[in-house]
Structures are given as structure tokens and as C-alpha cells.
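Changelog excerpt

This revision adds worked examples to the README so contributors can see how folded entries look when concatenated. The first example is reproduced verbatim below.
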Amino acid sequence: MGSIALIIALHVYAREVPLNYVLLAAFTAVQALTMGCVVTLFEAKVVLEAAVITGIVVASLFAYILQNKHDFSVGYGCMGSLLMVLLWAGIFQIFFMSPAMNFVINVFGAGLFCVLLVIDLGQIMYKFSPEDYICACVALYLDVLNLFIRILQIVAEANK
């Protein structure tokens, strides 16, 4: 709940210079605490493998954006719908608890967050103004974090 409130505050006060840094630091601290709790549920080898894979994927997508000057922002509407599908699939997964469905949701989520990362990187490089650095930072952070969580779950399932 604190993360959501901080994200809203970050968007409202994105250009208020001293306050936006404080809010970004608070958001980062809350996310670090949350991720610290999440990764303790997995073996160190799995976390390291997921981190390396995430780093490679992010670097590859960044290289792709540097080479292609296409406008990927047209995908935002579709991404909203696909995020809702992911949300509802996660809610159904709570009740049905199928390992196969969990794997499908994680693969779909990883692909979705890769596409979102490409869209957000394109926006940052070609559309955002320099004053939008806080929103850009939060968007990238959330894309990479969500991608890492999905890859972490996929790697953990593959290592069982």
C-alpha cells in the first residue's frame, strides 16, 4: 500500500525538486525492503541466475532500442489490456493453484514486461523531456523489477 501511495505522490510531485528526491528515495527503500523479503524465499543460486538473465535481457532490449528509431508508444493501449489480463490471471491462480498455469502466467508476464520495457525506453529516449527524469526512473525501475520477479519465478520452477 505504501508503494502505491508513493508512486502516486511521485507522479504528482515529479517536478518539485527537493520533494521528488525524497519521495524517490522512500519509494526505493520500500521496494528494496519488499524485494529483500521476496528473494529470501528462493535459493541464492536461483536469485543470481535470474539476476544475470534479467541483466542480459535488459541490455539486449536497450541495444534494440538504440538501433531502432520506431515509435513504440502505440502499444500503450494494448499493454493496458494485457496487464489487466495478467492481473485477472493472477487472481484466478490464487483460487485454482495450478503449477502449469503459474508457469504460463510467468512466461506471459515476462514477455509483457519486456514489451513494456521497450515502450518505456523508447519514450524516455525520444519523447520524454529532461524534466521527466523522475517518472522515467520509476517506469524503468518498475519494468525491470517486474521482469526480474517473473524471471525469478520461471528459473525457480525450472530448477525444481
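The second example, added in the same revision:
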Amino acid sequence: MRSNVLIPNAQIYPVDTDLPWTELAAIPETYYTAFCSLENLRISAEHSVLVRGGASGVGVAALHLLRGKYPDMRIDGTTRRADIRSSLLAEGYTDIVIDRDGRLETERAYDRILELVGPAVIKDSMKHLCRFGILCSTGQLGGKWYLEQFDPIIDLAEDSYLTSFYSGNVREGRLNDLLDYIDRYRVRIRPEKIFSLSEIIDAHRYLESRTGFGKVVIVI
């Protein structure tokens, strides 16, 4: 274990885990954000789930967390890139929905939606939410921060619920709950790529290339 770290004391959290460093480094804040968002969605085994923004780091983390506990659950993901559909299916999604110009190319509705694209598409996502379903708005990948011209009576799906999660709300107990969950359900945490510190330029090039998705870890 490292004995020194140069960050504010308020952001240091002791954890109890046997995970190797490369896997532990791949968890915060991506898996924490996904874990807490899924808690807010109140998911059960019988639910169908849509991850809008399925190729994002949080989206893939949510998929792995759900698949660990619910191996047979229907978990669909969205992407704007049809060329990575096969890669996303290999990650564990049941099916991939193409997001074209802010609209999903499907008529399917879901019990739970993890919204990572955000305010830019929430109205469209609501059209794909089942009655008594829950949508958790966590990400803002669509580049919009606010809901404009939003009428909750009209724009929310019938008898549905809208919630959110902010990744800045970190609690030590919840972080350790995440680690316990990962251990209990043997959640897949492998980073997509591991680079050494001397390869940091290559790591940045890889991240900017958009050839993959998932977490990249630098080993010091």
C-alpha cells in the first residue's frame, strides 16, 4: 500500500479489499457512480434495463455490476456508433440500440433507464419507460446541463419516476458497500488497457483515438 498521497484529506477513504492495484484503480469514480445510480433505480431481477450511453465508462461499469448479480437480466445499451455494436455485445449487453440524432431506433420500453446522455435526450428516453418505471439521470454526455421547456406533467412517462445521482456525493460506507458487492458477485473489473508511467503519451493517444471504451490505468 502507498503511504503517501497528494490530495485533500476529505477525499481520502480507507478501504478493505483484496483487489490488485490495477483493478482497484479502475473502480473510482466510475464504478462508484454506476453503483449509486443503480441503487437509486431500485432494480430487481425481473426488471429490464436500458443504459443510455452504453459505451461510456459509467455505462460499461453499470453493465458489469448488473451482470454480476443478474446474469440473465435483459440489459440493453445505446450507442451512436454502429461500428462498436459487436464490441458492446461482447461486453455483455443483451442488445444494442442505435441512438441517432437524439432518438432511439427502437419501440421497446424498459422498467429502468440509466440516463448518461442527460438533459439533451431525457424527453426521448421517457418515451421508452414502462409504467411505474424509474429513470436515473446521472451523466451529461449530450453536452446539455439543464432541462429546457420541460413540463413534468406532459414530458414524464405515465406513472413514472425521475431521479438522479451526483458523483460528488461520496460516502466511505457506500464506497465499501461497492467493494463488498464486487467481491460478493465477482464483478468483472478488468481495465481495458494498462500502461506504465513511461507510456503515458501512448495512453493519451489511445484515449483520444476512440478505438475502444472502458477504463485505462497507469501503473507507477
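Reviewer comment on example two: The chain is about 30% helix and 20% strand. The radius of gyration is 18 Å.
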